[in-house]
Design brief:
about 25% strand, two-stranded antiparallel sheet, Nucleoside Triphosphate Pyrophosphohydrolase, NUDIX_hydrolase-like_dom_sf, about 120 residues
């Protein structure tokens, strides 16, 4: 079975676009993994539905993320902190789906290193 790949106007795949976006917003280079989840998100303020697709990504750096001008704050959070974060439940579900068994063990789709200090997720807000 084959897979169709959509590309943007510059010829980049969704995975490449995602990696570029993360780099622009955090100064982190990442390796994009598999699709974790997808769902429809309703933005009530503009009465618009958006189709969200989330990917598992592993940072290719051990540096702290840098706050971009597009966000108010950026942080690293352990899995136990995610349920209390102010974000749509779909993102929380994706984080849980892509989480390694332990913070020092990567998920089975990648052998990329995860941060061993319990802070393996960067979540711009």
């Amino acid at each position: 079975m084959g897979t169709a790949r959509r590309q943007d106007r510059a010829g980049r795949t969704p995975e490449e676009c995602l990696a570029r976006e993360i780099t622009e917003e955090t100064q982190w280079k990442v390796t994009t993994g598999p699709i974790l989840d997808s769902w429809m998100y309703h933005i009530a303020t503009v009465e618009k539905d958006v189709f969200i697709v989330t990917y598992g990504c592993c940072p290719d750096t051990t540096t702290e993320p840098v706050l971009s001008h597009e966000h108010k704050e950026v942080g690293l959070f352990g899995e136990y902190e995610v349920p209390a974060l102010n974000m749509p439940d779909g993102y929380k579900r994706s984080i849980a789906t892509g989480s390694p068994v332990s913070e020092s063990t990567p998920p089975n789709w990648s052998n990329r290193p995860w941060r061993a200090d319990g802070a393996s997720r960067a979540v711009p807000s």
